[in-house]
Records
---
Amino acid sequence: MKLLQSIRNTFLAGLIVFIPLVATVYVLWFGFDFLDSLLRPVLKRVLGVYLPGFGLVATLLLIFALGALARLTLGKRVVAALEQAIMRIPLVKTVYATVKHASEALIDNKASGFKGVVLVEYPRRGCYVIGFTTGANIEEVQEKIKEKVINVFIPTAPNPTSGMVIIVPEDEVIPLKMTVEEGLKLIVSGGFVRK
């Protein structure tokens, strides 16, 4: 029984590493291949030859250009208008919003809005979950509850973009020393990986 459990756990740990790795490679390869197929005829016409790997360079330049555009005032408006258009398409908006929030949470800790990693007794006494404190304060809730409360986002594993927000009395929250990034890695790995 222990051998089967060990094999299962090892396989699941490998799967947790494999899936995001393959997904990342697939997305990057798709972008590279897409740009490469667009640029191949143009390069052949302009230069007379095709340069292998130019799609990779073009992909990196496109990512950098999008980042630069998103940081400019005019660019922010263009990106916001594009996002509003995308958010009007029923199925696409769900996929886009999920991927965007996941990217923000995993790439930029500041964008995620998480302030710290905490331990909270949930869903009952004696059981603990990892959560993330948020900077937001819900004034109406605080007015109705006498003791000071904290908003804690409890993510689901392995997808930290979904979960629930619970409001917990401040003295029942146990702060942890791990960073938000380490906490997210722990959630995404299903508890297998901390750093």
Note: Residues 2-86 form one domain.
---
Amino acid sequence: MTTISELKAEARKTAFAARKQAFAAGQGQAAALLADLLAEYGAKPLAGYMAMRTEIDPSEAMAAHQGPVGVPVIMGAGQPLKFRAWTPGCALIEGEFGAKIPAEGAWIEPEILIVPMVAWDRRGFRLGYGGGFYDRTLEGLRAKRPTIAIGFAFAAQELPEVPVEPVDQPLDALVTETGVIRF
């Protein structure tokens, strides 16, 4: 019998290949579509991310946001993410897994998160890298107050169904280069 871990590993393999091809083709107007969606939330604190490898890049939308913006800092295995304040052009250093993070700055607690991913489905679920960081973080934030998770990915990263577990946190919306999907 196939385990959920094996299903997720196989889904990641398929999605990474699709993402690599989509990245080579370019992200088109994806960041502009994301910025338009974020504008609906005004100046609420936002968490984005610094794109790595073949991830779709949200920095243009982050720079356009009217409120404070942070990027994730991995505090350790099994812990939720914290978010350090980010502004365009701020000094960045290399964090865990090679992710760029601000060299200094205040911690912010986001109410809106732009969530990177490996794959997604039309039910509003995403497949990450396997560390559970965003699921833990969203669970903690959502226990305190309404928190919006907006997935950002290439359309080609869609799978018919992402394997899910009870701990997996759903997205509220998803933005790709082809449009916005609300769940």
Note: The first helix runs from residue 4 to 25.
